[in-house]
């Protein structure tokens, strides 16, 4: 026979008094819940927020930066171009930054940089890395130093990349004895869009796009062109005229891009548009 359980022993749904809500479900281990909340708050406190210092260049603020920008901060430097403005520097750099530099102009304004100096090392833009997103950058670098071991750069990224994704970049580098380089990066020159036009003339050597000197024993850097239009003109050097090169990396040209390289034969040692030993070309126009 089935065993009958008396009503007094059977489990029943608890009945709340009329007008009272059911109690909220609580954490079975209250102390653990508290610890989780505290841990979450601590994580939020220790995760650093990305920060940057912004300089806005317009017809008013350019008076402060007319002779150049020298930035010594540790946060990224973001330069916004609101109006067509010009920097005229007689020091060794037009823009010099201890932190990475990003330049943009959503309205398509122009920043012109003119540098004339007799230093052994002269730069249009000098920073650990340089990123150009939009706007128009026009750089002219001229030097008079007669030391054949010195260098002149339109744009120089000393420890990382030069990245160009939009807008236009024009560089003209012309000195009598320097190694004249349009765009140089110790790691990668990355061009994904926009118009890049680099002209370098005279000196001991000319290089249009150059990279990969951070560690000459490793394949660490290079030049990557995946979009946009690239025009290179290297001429008038005593020893070498080179369009696109990388000391320790490789060159890759791909995508829907157009690359035009002009090199004259004035160099006593080498004259070439790009180094064929390290260059790969995929489906583009050269």
Please describe the topology of this protein.
Blueprint: H1 30-46, E1 52-57, H2 62-65, E2 69-71, E3 76-81, E4 85-89, E5 93-97, E6 101-104, E7 110-117, E8 121-127, E9 130-132, E10 136-143, E11 151-157, E12 162-164, E13 168-174, E14 179-185, E15 188-191, E16 195-201, E17 205-211, E18 222-225, E19 228-235, E20 240-246, E21 250-253, E22 257-263, E23 270-274, E24 279-281
Parallel strand pairs: 1-3, 2-5, 3-6, 4-7, 5-8, 6-9, 7-10, 8-11, 9-12, 10-13, 11-14, 12-15, 13-16, 14-17, 15-18, 16-19, 17-20, 18-21, 19-22, 20-23, 21-24
Query: What string, H for helix and E for strand, traces the elements in order?
Result: HEHEEEEEEEEEEEEEEEEEEEEEEE
**How does the helix and strand content classify structurally?**
mainly beta
Rg over C-alpha atoms, rounded to the nearest angstrom: 30 Å
Distance between the termini: 96 Å
| Beta-strand content bin | over 45%
| Share of residues in helices | under 10%
Average pLDDT across residues? Answer: 85
Task: Quickly count the helices.
Answer: 2
């Amino acid at each position: 026979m089935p065993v009958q359980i008396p009503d007094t022993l059977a489990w029943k749904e608890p009945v709340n008094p009329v007008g009272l809500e059911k109690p909220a479900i609580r954490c079975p281990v209250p102390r653990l819940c508290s610890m989780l909340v505290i841990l979450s708050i601590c994580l939020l406190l220790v995760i650093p927020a990305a920060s940057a210092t912004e300089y806005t260049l317009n017809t008013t603020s350019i008076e402060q930066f007319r002779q150049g920008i020298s930035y010594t901060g540790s946060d990224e430097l973001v330069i916004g171009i609101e109006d067509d403005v010009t920097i005229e520097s007689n020091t060794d750099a037009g823009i010099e930054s201890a932190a990475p530099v990003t330049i943009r102009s959503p309205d398509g304004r122009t920043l012109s940089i003119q540098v004339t100096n007799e230093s052994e090392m002269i730069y249009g833009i000098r920073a650990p890395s340089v990123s150009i997103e939009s706007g128009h950058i026009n750089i002219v670098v001229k030097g008079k130093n007669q030391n054949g071991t010195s260098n002149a750069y339109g744009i120089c990224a000393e420890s990382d990349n030069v990245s160009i994704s939009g807008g236009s970049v024009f560089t003209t580098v012309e000195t009598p004895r320097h190694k004249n380089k349009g765009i140089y990066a110790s790691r990668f020159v990355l061009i994904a869009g926009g118009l890049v036009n680099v002209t370098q003339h005279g000196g001991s050597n000319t290089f249009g796009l150059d990279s990969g000197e951070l560690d000459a024993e490793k394949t660490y850097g290079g030049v990557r062109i995946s979009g946009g239009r690239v025009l290179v003109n290297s001429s008038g050097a005593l020893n070498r005229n080179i369009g696109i090169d990388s000391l320790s990396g490789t060159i890759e040209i791909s995508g829907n891009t157009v690359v035009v390289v002009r090199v004259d034969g004035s160099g006593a040692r080498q004259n070439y548009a790009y180094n064929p030993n390290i260059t790969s070309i995929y489906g583009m126009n050269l």
